[in-house]
Task: structure prediction
Amino acid sequence: MSLKRLRTGFSIAGIICISVGLFCGARYMGWLEQDSSPLGNLARFVYGPDVRREMNRLKIVKETTPEIPRITAICYHEVRPDRREDSLNVDPETFRRHIREFKEAGYSFIGVNDLRQYKTGLKNLPEKAAFITFDDGYADNYNYAYPILREEHVPGIFFVVSSTVGGKNRMTASQLREMQANGMEIESHTVNHENLAAMNEKEIDFELRESKSSLEKILGKPVCVLAYPGGKADEEVLESVRKYYDMAFVASVSPERKQTMYTLQRYGVFNWNEHIESIFKNR
Ligand SMILES: [Zn+2]
Result:
């Protein structure tokens, strides 16, 4: 082999090594985790979804409040193929991709009873536990999200605004019952979807008690989990919630903020979250 050919060979090998090194380094630094560019997709293809950021958050949760379940709770709103410009709407194929990426990243999907059994010491949770929730009770949840959840064998938790059941663009009582019969869980998102923190004690009590009892009538089972409208709750709200519910969810995530069973944190999902690692950047 001529010296010239040898030199060319070394140069090409050098360039390949440097490129691979830069690629691995960029992935290690987390620079490719949100990216839907060809490089980001290549990183996802080689390594799978990057959930290290979320694993770090769960580690902090465990250190600060060991009694709180280590779960990755996710909050969707609308799931429909049109209205892509609506920030709270995720199109169904993106939703399905999220579910598959959770699986690919080693997640198991859990429901309300798993949390309850964890709380009472009856059950451990998987290290990577995803809790998939939907707020507000939109009709598209039944039309698009529910069939995907069934196909993928995932329990979905639907927080429904009780006064809107059967209303325009909302799920009906019989749809809720059908979903429940097929492994979905229906819980409360109050009666009127108004800010509880801005109400007096009597109004708060009504929103919590009435939504619980009317959903229980529809579903024929106890309703003991709440999602705060707008994620807002103060001490007065929490005190009333404890009377009727055994756990409640906010709609944001902050590793620094202490959680209790009444302020369980969830990641909101928006229309720009193409992949799950991008959801983990939402605060
Ligand atoms: Zn809501």
